[in-house]
Amino acid sequence: MTGVELILAALATGAAAGVSTAANSAVADAYAALKGRLSRLLARRGSDVGVLDAAAEVTPVRLGVALAVCGADADREVLATAQRLLDLAGADVAGRGDRVRVDTNFGAVGTFHAPVTVTHQAPGGGRPGPPAEPGTA
Questions:
Q1: What is the spatial distance between Cα 47 and Cα 69, in angstroms, rounded to a whole number?
Q2: What DSSP character marks residue 64?
Q3: What is the DSSP string of 20-52?
Q4: How confident is the prediction for the chain on average, in pLDDT?
Q5: Which pLDDT score is estimated for 85?
Q6: Cis omega (within 30 of 0) for bond into 130
Q7: How many CB atoms lie within 10 A of CB 49?
Q8: How many Å apart are CA 31 and CA 89, to the nearest integer?
Q9: Phi, psi of 4 (to 5 degrees)
Q10: Which string of DSSP letters, residue by residue, matches 104-122?
Q11: Distances from the Cα of 106 to the Cαs of 54, 102, 117, in angstroms?
Q12: In this structure, are residues 13 and 86 in contact, taking their beta carbons and an 8 Å threshold?
């Protein structure tokens, strides 16, 4: 995961936790600290601080470019704060190789690179059964 991806994931996690009633104060504090650090860094580099405003409906691409241009993706303090936020939130962020949960693979095999989403739907909306053995279907 690149620095920009880490920061974007942390911002999304913090914003989502902020609207959740389960958000604890440590997550909220880490989110506020991350946004504060990013605001100061963007302002120092003469970038548009408004890209951090959730109401601005800024695309992740535009925000990612602004973060890279101002050097946030290489700022150790910003990256540490972003990682701390994700850890506090217990986020299973796509692209993090150290957090994987597999209940069953229902026959999905091979090498997968994040982000990966596999959705199985059985006829009638129930849980799918395992696939047939190769050569028997």
A1: 8
A2: H
A3: STT--HHHHHHHHHHHHHHHHHHHHTT--GGGG
A4: 76
A5: 92
A6: no
A7: 16
A8: 10
A9: -65, -45
A10: --TT--S---SS-------
A11: 38, 10, 13
A12: yes
Which amino acid appears at position 72 of this protein? A
Residue 88 binned pLDDT confidence (cut-offs 50, 70, 90) = confident
Closest CA to 83 of 133, 19, 137, 8: 8
Measured in degrees and rounded to the nearest 5, phi and psi for residue 50 equal -65, -15
Nearest-10 crossing angle of helices 3-19, 76-89: 40
- Average pLDDT in the 29-56 region? 85
- Closest by CA position to 71, among listed 50, 46, 89: 46
Q: What is the SS3 assignment for 11?
A: helix
pTM flag (> 0.70): no
Question: Mean pLDDT over residues 79-89, rounded?
Answer: 91
Q: Is 136 helix (H, G, I), strand (E, B) or coil?
A: coil
Name residue, tokens 């991350």. 34
Q: How many CB atoms lie within 10 A of CB 8?
A: 20
The average pLDDT across 65-88 equals 92
Distances (CA, A) of 63 to 21, 28, 46: 26, 21, 15
pLDDT given for residue 49 in this prediction: 81
